[in-house]
UniProtKB/TrEMBL annotation:
CDD domains with a match to the protein in the record: DEXQc_UvrD (cd17932), SF1_C_UvrD (cd18807)
The species this protein was found in: Corticibacter populi
Domain UvrD-like helicase C-terminal: 278-571
Protein name: ATP-dependent DNA helicase Rep
Similarity comment text for this entry: Belongs to the helicase family. UvrD subfamily.
Occurrences of domain UvrD-like helicase ATP-binding (ranges): 3-277
Function of the protein: Rep helicase is a single-stranded DNA-dependent ATPase involved in DNA replication; it can initiate unwinding at a nick in the DNA. It binds to the single-stranded DNA and acts in a progressive fashion along the DNA in the 3' to 5' direction.
EC number(s) per entry: 5.6.2.4
C-alpha cells in the first residue's frame, strides 16, 4: 500500500493502463485517489504536461492543484488541472481556426447572452429571453444546433426558440464569440470532425482523470471519449448518490455507458469513509436509503460514534439564523481545541436563504463569505473594464463595444448607436467595423461621425499600447494612464449614489488593476481553472478575462464561516456543518402549493440532502422553521421529510432550545471578555 491510501485506493492509483472507474460514496477518498494518481503517473515517468485532471468548479481545481503541489511540488504546475470549460478554452484557442474562429475570440457571459437573445427575438422581456436561454442551452448540451434541434421541437414556444437560436448562432459567429455551452460543444466538434486535431490531442494526453463524474452531461462524456480515444487511459471517479445536476443536463446514463463503451473498464469500489463520524454517516445512509440503487454500496467510518446529529426547530428564518450563530459561538466555547471560523459552514437550498444568515452573522461580528454569491467580477465597475479588455482582444465583440463606448459615456447618444447597429446588421459586420465603413458618413450627422471617429482612434491607440505593455510594471503604468485618459474615476463619482460608494468602487478598480498587472507579470493562475500563465502583454492577459470575469470565484482561503448553497458545497468538507431551512417545500424544493412531487425530482432533492449531510466531519445540525414568509404572509410550514428519513434516535436528536445554548453563550461571552475567544 502507498502512504496514506488503503488497499482499494492503492489499486485504483496503480491501475494506470486502460480505463478505470472509482465508484464510491461520499468522503471515501475519491478525490484523494485522483491527486495521488497524478503523483503516481509522474513517478512512473509520465511527463506532467501529459496528464489532465478535470474537476467541476474552479474552486475544486484550485484545491486539487494545492493538494497535488503538496505531493509532487513544482511539477504540479504543468499538470492540466482544470474544469471542462477551461480545457475547452485552451483547445479552442489552439485549434479553433479550423472552425473559422480567431484565436482571440471572446467568451460571452450569461448577461451578454441574454441581451443578444433579446435582440435576436426582438423583445425586451427578460423572462422570455431567459426561457430561450434555458431551452437553447439545453439543446446545445445535447449536442444539437439550430438545424439538428429542429427534430426536438414541440409546440409554438420551442419553434420560436429555434428561430431565435438560428439568429443567435449567426450573431455569435459575426461577433467572433462563444458562450459557455460552446466551450464544451466546440471542442467536441473539433475532435469529432477534424482528425488531425483529434490525433494531436490524443497523442498529447497520456492519462485523463475526471472528478465528480456523475455530474457530467452528454457532451462532456462525448468529449472525454474523444480525448482518450480507443486506448481509454482514463480514471473517472464518482458517486451516483451525489448526482445533483440532472436539471442542467447531467445524466447518470454516463455511468451506465462506461462499461459498455469500454469493455476493459476496471471498476473499483471504496467503502471506508474518512470524513465523518459514524453518527453523521448513519444519518446520511438512512436518507439515501429510499433511493433506487444503480450500484450497491456500503460505507462505514472508523472515526467513532461522535456527537449525535441535532435537529433544531425554529420559529422563523430570523430565529433560525440566530440559532445558527448561537450554535457557532457555543461550539467555539465548548469544543477542544477551539474551532476556527473556517471550520464552520452553513448550507442551504437556495441563494436567497443567505440573507437572514448574513444579517445575524454581521450582528454577531462573525466573519463570513458567501460562496457562489455575487462575485467580485460581477460588479458593474469591473464589468465595465472587462468590456474594454474584451474589445481590445476582439474588436468584433459587439456587446463589449456597446458597454465600453458608454462607460464612460463620450457624447455618443443612443440614437447614434442604434443607427450604427442598424448599419452593422445591414452590412453583416460588427459595430467596430461599421465605424470605419466608407458608406457610414451618408447615414450619420457630422457630429455623430466625429464622436465615433474619436472613439475609434482612442480604442486603436489603447489597444496598441496594451499589446506593448509587457510584464507587471508596464501593465500597471498603462492601466493607470488608461483610466486617467477615459476619466473613469470621475465617471464613477457621477454614477454612484454616495461618495462612499464611489470610493469603494474606485477601490475595486484599483484592486482589479493590481491583479491584472500581477497576471501580466506571470504568476501561475489559480483563478482561471488551471491555465498557467507566463509573463505576458496586457493584451494577452485580457484575452482570458471574459472567462475570468464570469466563471471564476476568486476565493482566498480566508478564516471565515462559509455560507453556501448545497450545490456549491459538493466535494468540500468542514468540521462543523449546519443545514438550514430543511423544510418541506424548500428541501425538497417545490414550487407553488405543497403537493405531490415528481418521483425523479424527489430523488434528486434527496441526493442533495445526502450531499449536505456528508459535508460534515464532526458535528451536524439540521434546522427548520415553523413558519416562513410567502410574499407578505406568514404560512405555517413543516419539517422536511428528509429529517424523518435520517431516523435519528428520538432522545438525542432535539436540541434543547434554551438551557444548553444559554449556558454556551454565557461561556462564550466569558471567554471573549477574558480575551481568549475564537481566532480573529
Ligand atoms: P466526496 O464524495 O464528498 O467528493 P471523496 O470521496 O472525494 O468525497 P475525499 O475528499 O477524497 O473524498 O476524502 C475525504 C477525506 O478523507 C479527506 O479529508 C481525505 O484527506 C481523507 N482521506 C481519504 N482517504 C484517506 C486515507 N486513506 N487515509 C486518511 N485519510 C483519508
Ligand atoms: Mg471528491
Amino acid at each position: 500500500m502507498s502512504a496514506g491510501l488503503n488497499l482499494a485506493q492503492t489499486q485504483a492509483v496503480h491501475h494506470i493502463s486502460g480505463p478505470s472507474l472509482v465508484l464510491a460514496g461520499a468522503g471515501s477518498g475519491k478525490t484523494r485517489v485522483i491527486t495521488h494518481k497524478i503523483a503516481h503517473l509522474i513517478g512512473q515517468g509520465m511527463a506532467p504536461g501529459r496528464i489532465a485532471a478535470i474537476t467541476f468548479t474552479n474552486k475544486a481545481a484550485a484545491e486539487m492543484r494545492e493538494r497535488a503541489k503538496g505531493l509532487i511540488g513544482k511539477a504540479a504546475k504543468d499538470v492540466l488541472i482544470c474544469t471542462f470549460h477551461a480545457l475547452g478554452v485552451r483547445m479552442v484557442r489552439e485549434d479553433g481556426q479550423v472552425l473559422g474562429l480567431k484565436p482571440n475570440f471572446s467568451i460571452l457571459d450569461s448577461d451578454d447572452v441574454l441581451s443578444i437573445l433579446k435582440d435576436c427575438g426582438g423583445t425586451t422581456d427578460t423572462q422570455l429571453a431567459r426561457q430561450w436561454q434555458w431551452t437553447i442551452s439545453g439543446w446545445k448540451n445535447m449536442g444539437l444546433n439550430s438545424q439538428t434541434a429542429a427534430a426536438q421541437v414541440e409546440g409554438e414556444v420551442d419553434k420560436v426558440a429555434l428561430e431565435v437560436m438560428a439568429r443567435y448562432e449567426e450573431r455569435l459567429s459575426a461577433f467572433q464569440s462563444v458562450d459557455f455551452d460552446d466551450l464544451v460543444g466546440l471542442p467536441l466538434t473539433l475532435l469529432s470532425q477534424h482528425a488531425p486535431v483529434r490525433e494531436k490531442w490524443q497523442a498529447r494526453l497520456g492519462h485523463v482523470l475526471v472528478d465528480e463524474y456523475q455530474d457530467t452531461n452528454a457532451t462532456q462524456y462525448e468529449l472525454l471519449k474523444l480525448l482518450v480515444g480507443e486506448r481509454g487511459h482514463f480514471t473517472a471517479v464518482g458517486d451516483d448518490d451525489q448526482s445533483i445536476y440532472g436539471w442542467r443536463g447531467a445524466t447518470l446514463e454516463n455511468l451506465k455507458k462506461l462499461p459498455q463503451d469500454f469493455p476493459a473498464l476496471r471498476v473499483i469500489k471504496l467503502e471506508q469513509n474518512y470524513r465523518s463520524t459514524s453518527a453523521i454517516l448513519r444519518a446520511a445512509n438512512n436518507v439515501i436509503g429510499p433511493n433506487p440503487k444503480l450500484f450497491p454500496k456500503t460505507l462505514y467510518s472508523e472515526l467513532g460514534e461522535g456527537e449525535p446529529v441535532r435537529v433544531v426547530d425554529c420559529d422563523s428564518e430570523e430565529h433560525e439564523a440566530e440559532r445558527a450563530v448561537a450554535r457557532i459561538q457555543g461550539l467555539c466555547a465548548s469544543v477542544n481545541p477551539t474551532p476556527e471560523w473556517r471550520d464552520f459552514a452553513i448550507l442551504y437550498r437556495a441563494n436567497h436563504q443567505a440573507k437572514a444568515l448574513e444579517k445575524a452573522l454581521r450582528r454577531a461580528s462573525i466573519p463570513y463569505k458567501v460562496s457562489g454569491g455575487t462575485s467580485f467580477f460581477d460588479r458593474s465597475e469591473i464589468r465595465d473594464l472587462c468590456a474594454w479588455f474584451r474589445l481590445w482582444s476582439n474588436e468584433d465583440d459587439d456587446p463589449a463595444f456597446l458597454r465600453a463606448i458608454s462607460a464612460p459615456r463620450r457624447g455618443i447618444g443612443h440614437q447614434t448607436l442604434a443607427q450604427l447597429g442598424d448599419f452593422a446588421s445591414q452590412y453583416k459586420c460588427s459595430m467596430y467595423a461599421a465605424m470605419f465603413n466608407q458608406m457610414l458618413p451618408a447615414r450619420l450627422s457630422a457630429r455623430a461621425l466625429g464622436g465615433l471617429a474619436e472613439f475609434g482612434r482612442l480604442l486603436n491607440d489603447l489597444q496598441y499600447r496594451a499589446r506593448h505593455a509587457l510584464g507587471a510594471e508596464a501593465a500597471r503604468q498603462f492601466l493607470k494612464e488608461w483610466l486617467e485618459e477615459i476619466g473613469y474615476e470621475n465617471f464613477l463619482l457621477e454614477h454612484s449614489d454616495t461618495a462612499a460608494q464611489a470610493t469603494a468602487r474606485w477601490g475595486n478598480v484599483q484592486e482589479f488593476c493590481d491583479w491584472m498587472a500581477q497576471r501580466a507579470g506571470g504568476v501561475p493562475d489559480e483563478a482561471i481553472g488551471g491555465i498557467v500563465t507566463e509573463a505576458k502583454s496586457l493584451l494577452e492577459v485580457a484575452q482570458t478575462i471574459a472567462l475570468l470575469s464570469t466563471i471564476s470565484e476568486q476565493e482566498k482561503d480566508q478564516n471565515v464561516v462559509t455560507l453556501s448553497t448545497l450545490h456549491a458545497s459538493k466535494g468540500l468538507e468542514w468540521p462543523h456543518v449546519i443545514l438550514a431551512g430543511v423544510n418541506e417545500g424548500v428541501l425538497p424544493f417545490q414550487q407553488g402549493e405543497e403537493g405531490v412531487i415528481d418521483q425523479q425530482r424527489l430523488e434528486e432533492e434527496r441526493r442533495l440532502m445526502y450531499v449536505g449531510i456528508t459535508r460534515a466531519q464532526r458535528t451536524l445540525a439540521v434546522s427548520w422553521t415553523r413558519r416562513r414568509k410567502k410574499g407578505r404572509d406568514w404560512v405555517a410550514t413543516k419539517p422536511s421529510r428528509f429529517i424523518g428519513e435520517m431516523n435519528l434516535a428520538a432522545d438525542t436528536a432535539r436540541e434543547d432550545p434554551r438551557a444548553k445554548l444559554r449556558a454556551l453563550r454565557e461561556e462564550f461571552a466569558r471567554k471573549a471578555a477574558a480575551g481568549s475567544t475564537a481566532p480573529e
